[in-house]
Amino acid sequence: MNSKSLTCCVVFLLHTNLLSSTSPSSLIHVNSTTSILNVTLPHSLSQSLEDFALKTLTNQHHTGSLYRAVLPKNLSGIEVSIVRLTGKSLWTSGARFSNVLIPARSVSVPPARRVAIVYQNLGNWSNHWYTVPGYRLITSVLGFRVLDVSDQDNVKEISLKMKNPVKILFRDLSDEKMLSRVSCVNFKAQNEDKEAARISRMILPGVCYGSSHGDYSVIEPLEKDKKKVALWRTRWWLWMVGLVLGFGVLWFLGFVCTMGLRILRTKKIQVVMEREANDGEVFESRWVGGSKMPSATVTRTLPESESGFENCSHG
After folding, report:
1. DSSP class of 159
2. Which of 29, 178, 180, 278 ranks highest by number of CB atoms within 10 Å?
3. What is the pLDDT of residue 305?
4. Cβ atoms 120, 144 nearer than 8 A
5. Where, if anywhere, are coiled coils annotated (predicted)?
6. 131 phi and psi, to 5 degrees?
7. Which letter does DSSP use for residue 139 in this model?
8. What whole-number distance in Å separates Cα of residue 52 and Cα of residue 306?
9. pLDDT for 301 beyond 70
10. Alpha helices in the chain (DSSP H)
11. How many CB atoms lie under 10 A from the CB of residue 26?
12. Model's pTM, two decimal places?
């Protein structure tokens, strides 16, 4: 009996030690580490990066200063920074930090007394997290998120309403020749967005424009797609040249037909006039100066004397 009770006590103690080793704090640590190592969605990665950025603000209290977040080694290559602003300063001056230029007259939705902007540069992780079918990324993915930090215990992601578009600068791209082959791509911040990625034209070298927070990059078509694009552009130019030439040929044919009709009409009038001339009196032609003109034969009527005058003269 004593041996059984001793065995039960040992089992109870082992069970208690196992439970204590898997306390909530340790479970949270394991889960948080796993979420960082095994995140499968860009949105979950952004949430993890936001958490690291917010930890930076716990010891930094200067509003309007940009702070670099410290990331674990398994996320080396990614750069994250954060700045805290008031809603008033965001409206008055905007936010010009990192490679993202948020214009003035921007307001958070819903309105927030204090906001934090998290800037992300995914670096060599860009191709791992984002792909665009038929294209390849030629720059790192740059992005930003806006957080409502008015209540430190209830931090939530919010959006911005801007009068002018936000500018994302890719400083390594400055060649204007690339504008014909590269495009800007905007990856939506929320994974429930219907349009996951939006491709737009790059107007200025190294500058992309956006209307909301999210991630941005620069892409170019793959080699096969480059050939398709080049073939399409060649065909498009051929169609345009053919269209212009076609209109030119049609105009020329119309002009020739119009002139031909005029000539035929003139000749017809001349034929009619010649017929009428042949049916009437024939006139001789004489040259007067450099012109050939019709001339009639001069026929002079002989004078006839009246009988009365003749008798008088003879008498």
Report:
1. E
2. 178
3. 58
4. yes
5. none
6. -140, 145
7. S
8. 143
9. no
10. 2-21, 24-37, 42-57, 87-93, 126-129, 223-279, 307-314
11. 11
12. 0.58
User: Token pair 């490679």 is at which residue?
Assistant: 99
* Of 128 and 280, more confident: 128
**Residue 285 CB neighbour total at 10 angstroms:** 9
> Which CATH architecture describes the domain 35-221?
Sandwich (2.60)
pLDDT band at residue 180 under the 50/70/90 scheme? confident
Query: Rounded to an integer, what distance in angstroms lies between the CA atom of residue 80 and that of residue 72?
Result: 12
CA distance 105 to 1: 81
DSSP, collapsed to helix, strand or coil, labels residue 233 as helix
Tokens 């977040």 belong to which residue?
69
Q: What is the pLDDT of residue 235?
A: 79
Provide the sign of the torsion angle of the four alpha carbons 26, 30, 33, 39, taken in this order.
negative
pLDDT tens-digit series, residues 60-116: 778 889 999 989 988 889 999 999 999 999 999 999 988 999 999 999 999 999 999
Question: Which amino acid is residue 61, in one-letter code?
Answer: H
User: Helix-strand-coil percent breakdown of the chain, rounded to 5?
Assistant: 45, 25, 30
